[in-house]
Write a structure and sequence with these properties.
- A hairpin with a 5-residue loop joins strand 6 and strand 7.
- Strands 6-7-8-9-4-3-10 form a 7-stranded mixed beta sheet. The chain has a 3-stranded antiparallel beta sheet with strand order 1-2-5, with no helix packed on it.
- It has a domain of 97 residues: Metal Binding Protein, Guanine Nucleotide Exchange Factor, Chain A (Beta Complex), CATH 2.170.150.70.
- The two termini are 27 Å apart.
- The chain is mostly beta strands.
- It is 5% helix and 35% strand.
- It has 1 helix and 10 strands.
């Protein structure tokens, strides 16, 4: 994994207006630039920089964010969490993997350590978006990285 985000300790972040604050601990499991059309629409940009982290290490420390639930092409429900005052996106959660959050990396107080492991959903990438050629590219998810329920014994 290319991610250089802190493996230990607590990271903090929040929304633009300061109404929502959070802290998160844990090592990123997979970090991406997601180019799917839903992420483009939700962000108003060409892609979303996101890090999958254990949901158990995430907590809101100030405020009450709003939630929007939609359906992904996969059929999973995707909950997008954002500030109801300023609209800043904070994280998302997929119904098949409630044990993970997809943290919007730019909501961190210091997002400078982020490094994407892959560009995903490049089949939906905008032609004017110049992607880093050093990062692996996938039409959808890389093998083994899709949102499927974890296997339990």
């Amino acid at each position: 994994m290319r991610s250089k985000m802190p493996a230990a300790g607590t990271m903090t972040g929040g929304c633009l207006c300061g109404a929502i604050r959070y802290e998160v601990t844990g090592e990123p499991i997979f970090s991406t630039h997601c180019h799917c059309r839903d992420c483009q629409r939700a962000s108003g940009s060409a892609y979303v920089a996101t890090a999958r982290l254990p949901a158990g290490g995430f907590r809101i420390t100030k405020g009450s964010p709003k939630r929007f639930v939609g359906k992904a092409d996969s059929g999973n429900e995707v909950t997008r969490v954002f500030c109801g005052d300023c609209g800043s996106p904070l994280y998302s959660q997929v119904s098949a993997r409630l044990d993970l959050i997809g943290l919007r990396v730019t909501s961190l107080d210091d997002p400078s350590g982020f490094r994407a492991d892959a560009d995903i959903f490049v089949r939906s990438a905008q032609p004017w978006d110049h992607m880093d050629p050093a990062i692996p590219k996938y039409d959808t998810y890389p093998p083994g990285k899709g949102y499927t329920r974890p296997v339990t014994d």
